[in-house]
Amino acid sequence: MLYNVAEAKQRVCVIGAGMSGLAAIKLLRDYPHDFEPIAFDKNADVGGMWIYTNSTDVDEHGIPIISSLYRELRVNLPKELMAYPDYQDFIGQEDRSYVSHEMVLEYLRNYTEHFNLRENIKFETFVEKVIPISDNNNWQTTKQQNWSIMSRNLDTNETDETICDAVMICNGHFFKPHIPKIPGIESFSGRILHSHTYRHPEEFKDKIVVLLGASASGMDIGIQISSYAKTVYLSHRHDKYKLDFPKNLIQVRGIVAANGSELTLQDGSKITVDVFMFCTGYLYEFAFLDESSNLFFEKRKHVRPLYKDFINVEHLSMALIGLPDFYVKGVYYYSQIKFFRNLLLGKIKLPSYEIMMEESKRPPPKTPRGNENLTHDPEWDYCADLAKQGRFEPLPALYEKSMELYHYIFRNFADFRKFDLKLLENGKPIFVRRQKE
User: Fold this and answer.
1) Does the pLDDT value for residue 6 go beyond 50?
2) Span 383-401, pLDDT tens digits
3) Which of 118, 191, 222, 294 is most buried per CB count within 10 Å?
4) Pairing of the two strands 208-212 and 275-278
């Protein structure tokens, strides 16, 4: 069945003007006779989580800081894959593939200016409530004025209501720390923090630090602070990574209990530390969603019911962009947005409600974080599937080969940032080790 839409231009609300939000505005603006995008962002500029701040608590308006950037962060994804498919100027910003967070923000600002996206964004505007207001309860159809967006101007404190036909939630999900329960942790006598509030490695000079979690941020932060700390323990449940870590960075098993500064590990051994840092990821939070949106949160990493892991099955005119736990984000953001755009245009035939509900119960796709090498790339498969059903051009095959190479490099080298992604004359991608930093 096709998704029925009104013939008039559709107003689409975009929440957030970070990487996914800017892509949403741009791809909607590609169809000026069909869509009128209007975006809201609490910041004074574009960039979302890529706006660095030393603050770790709240901003000048009393709103929690969303940025989890630390001062020395360089991306763990080659900029050649991070750039949007239709805007590759990122590549010319710096010779190296793994650039600083400042370079990413510059790229997003350039992208905004290049496509003239600012005129569609209400800055310093905080979205407080998103409510479906249609009196049409048939999930197959929609009509004009389907959503009420309640927002507050952070400068004047005035509230406003915007009525729109569809909603794209692009506010990200790397700002509400996930803190797993550890028996006895309340007795820990040292400093406890989450990687969300980590900013500077020199804070840990001469300390014994344990990092719980060895995904990208855990390994990266561990390597950084090992230059200052006396000892860094990298605690995780995976098999030990066969990587050339600094000598004072020691891999240990997961933590099962705390007794003061002494921690008990899964293998029964104990370590004594001064600092405990959770590198355990983030929880989803969409505080502005009214309960009538009919979404619920299962455990910490599942939002239900979502078709293709981003479209609200109960309200097909709502999309949550960027939830799958993938590395190559800019590319799959584009794929999700194009699918949703074609859905609003009535170009896509969806399965039945029952089939979509059943599919939404499956575990969401993600890129494996362990030592295993991939036999296929789940990110490529996901984007290819969206393109096929969504009736838009798939990504060039070059992306698939580049993704495969990237995942291999990322899993097999502690110094993967010393490699740059290059294209040979025949168009084949290859990683080349840098001659000098």
Assistant:
1) no
2) 999 999 999 999 888 888 8
3) 222
4) parallel
